[in-house]
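User: I'm curious whether this sequence folds into something compact or stays loose and floppy. Could you predict its structure so I can see for myself?
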Amino acid sequence: MDYDPIPTVVPAEPLDVEADTTNLRAAMKGFGTDEQTIIDIITARSNAQRQLIKENFLREYGRDLIDDLKSELGGKFEDAIIALMMPPVKYLCTQLHRAMAGMGTNESTLVEILCTKSNEEMVEIVKCYEDMYDRPLAEHMCSETSGHFRRLLTLIVTGVRDPVGAVDAQKAVEQAQQLYSAGEAKLGTDEEVFNRILAHGSFAQLRLVFDDYKQLSGQTIEQAIKHEMSGELHEAMMAIVPYLDSIETKGVLGYSVHRADKLRRGGGSALYVRNYLNTQLCTKSNPGGPVEYVFVEVSAADTKLLVGCVYRLNNRTDTKIFSLSLNLSLLLTQTLWLLGTSTLTFYRTRA
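Assistant: Here's the prediction. I'll summarize afterward.
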């Protein structure tokens, strides 16, 4: 199946555009700014509703709502509010242009936007980009990238991906074999084969290919890509992979999930990490244990980060938590992020 996004911001019902317009104007009129009113209105409306409010604001006051917001806000708060006020496709095009403007290129932005889009979404982005900047997206992107990374993005931008839901089980078996032959089965890597398959297949088709690949090679496609690719191409391909193949659970597009499941009622603990980052499971709780936890080492360049998620029921003693902290003190890491309901003391050790 293809990735089916579930929105966390839904349309406000009932919507009172007149009231929202009046309240936003009042929040920015005169001395000072009522930031809380701006937050309460803009973050609780769908994007389509924000566009209605923006149009009504112009009709009622002859003023551009975005210009007023820019004049009243600042810093990251301004960036977030202005981003929320833009139609999604225009926001994506703005970020693409910013990633390629001036000296240097932010390849991570190109990857995050382009590599996770269906063919239908790409058609919309390509049209909007040329309308906004009077320059074809493919031309601009090609001038800022190179090598196999550029060829992969070019395939995606030019809209070669199969339609949503298009699947062919027999073809998936053949494509899995092609990927294996182009990577693990030979010395070196044929990047063009990876580019062709990952750029052409629908996300539903790729899921079949990845399942067949695991049966053929004994490795997940994520493991194969980490072994065979590097740099921007590795990052791009890891962003294309829709789900973590080794986990039989609903995934989140663009993320790998590490879970510590429960046998009893409840979902256990889980960490979602952007799947172009290098991750390694360090330790996790046993199913049904009194303390639920999962710890993953995330590495980039010369930095290692230990990320942990811990949950402890209120009627459990701190002895279990202390035992866990002793085990984790054996892990070598530079920085720790801990999420959950327990506070632990960790001891830095030498390798």
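Summary: The domain at 17-86 is CATH 1.10.220.10 (Annexin V; domain 1). DSSP finds 16 helices and six strands in the chain.
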